[in-house]
Amino acid sequence: MVNHVLRQIPAIHELQQDKRFNELAKNYSVSKSKLTEWLQEAVADIRRGVLAELVDLENLEVVGIDDVIFSSLSERLSHHSSFKLRRVINGTGTVLHTNLGRAKLSEGAIRRVVETAFSYSNLEYNLTEGKRGSRHELIEELVQEATGAEAAMVVNNNAAAVYLVLKALAKHKEVIVSRGELVEIGGSFRVSSIMEESGAELVEVGTTNKTHLYDYEQAITEQTAMIMKVHTSNFKIIGFTKEVSIQDLQPLASQSDLILYEDLGSGALYDLRKHGVGNEPTVSEALARGVDIVTFSGDKLLGGPQAGIIAGKKKWIDQLKKHQLARVLRVDKMTLAALEATLKEYRNEETVVESLPTLQSILLSKEKVEEKTIHFQAKLSPFWQTEMRDGVSQVGGGTMPEVELPTKLILLSSQAIKAQLIHDKLRQGSPAIISRIINEKIALDFRTITFNEIDEVINRLTEIEKELS
Ligand SMILES: *Cc1c(COP(=O)(O)O)cnc(C)c1O
């Protein structure tokens, strides 16, 4: 029986003559040679299945072996043709979700990315003078304007910024850091590991909950190059604590000729405290306290593309710009285009919240979330039960963990299907929808779902309903 079935598998050149072969090549816009590779894989798989008797041989005879081959080929094509990096609807309410790509770009930033990607640009060409220019200059002025820094540059991300600062300015020297600030951020960023990698020597002072000025003082040696402060963005010790402020460290650093460096992490350019959200100092404030260098992310509170911004005293920034690593960690034109447009939005204090999706989502009131929730409920089929309830959303991205943004949640369920299964189907569908499970129900937080996406969520739930009935 097995041999009989195997003999029935047509030769590849015969299958290539089948009109389905040509149709698939055309529909999926792949070359015939690529399609032949996948066809060979499909045939090999079926051959293996038959030999191992994993396939129902009688059924194979009934269906017809070439139908089986072509449907397997077609599945392969649809798998290969869908993009791996896909759009996701974020129903978690967490605004800066690191796993879901952090900040959404503003429309202005997206337009600039498209325009810049579409044509040549003056990325490293000074149009006034007609000679080689520097890509750092493209955004330096805007960072200066937004933060009051003397100078600035941009690298791939904030981890890269920290690495460059340590490597270029403190390699083979000592860097003093408080034990209370040696945190791990976002699951993979550890100050101690980056420090080790950079060749700078970490000198830990104080204890986890308390560090005093004299701890720093006593740690200073001939070898010390820098005092580093790390904004412990995703971690808060509550209670009996003491940390030394930049204002207090500044005189010590300057007496001993040390660089005072603060890794700010998020780097807020807009003061969210005005709206009663969090207690995050702005970058300008951090610099005004007398720190020499700060570093921060482009895609956290700033609301732009992935990038690491280094700002501070010109003397140090100039050294960093000249370092070989700056070349290694440099950002591309699309990042610069998006960052420039994002930074420009900050020039208008009145419209910046409206323009940048990150700020807009963080500051969206509970009432505004509720409007979306009601709109969703009104469109939903009675197959689904929903209840609305108060909840909290998070800023995310390791930023302001103590902040709870009041929100309205939808808890959705159906007698016909378990929450875990809905959760999986939503995640695996197209577009992928990320929800949470609370009390055996699907929780959706519309803070991070746009009005336009509501219809897509409804459509997906309708599809699931149809699959079940
Ligand atoms: C997030 C964070 C980083 C890492 O920044 P990336 O832009 O993710 O590389 C470094 N330091 C602090 C304090 C952070 O919060």
Automatic annotation (TrEMBL):
Compartment list: Cytoplasm
Pathway: Aminoacyl-tRNA biosynthesis; selenocysteinyl-tRNA(Sec) biosynthesis; selenocysteinyl-tRNA(Sec) from L-seryl-tRNA(Sec) (bacterial route): step 1/1
Superkingdom field: Bacteria
A Gene Ontology biological process term: conversion of seryl-tRNAsec to selenocys-tRNAsec
Function: Converts seryl-tRNA(Sec) to selenocysteinyl-tRNA(Sec) required for selenoprotein biosynthesis.
Similarity comment: Belongs to the SelA family.
Protein name from the UniProt record: L-seryl-tRNA(Sec) selenium transferase
Organism, as annotated: Halalkalibacter akibai (strain ATCC 43226 / DSM 21942 / CIP 109018 / JCM 9157 / 1139)
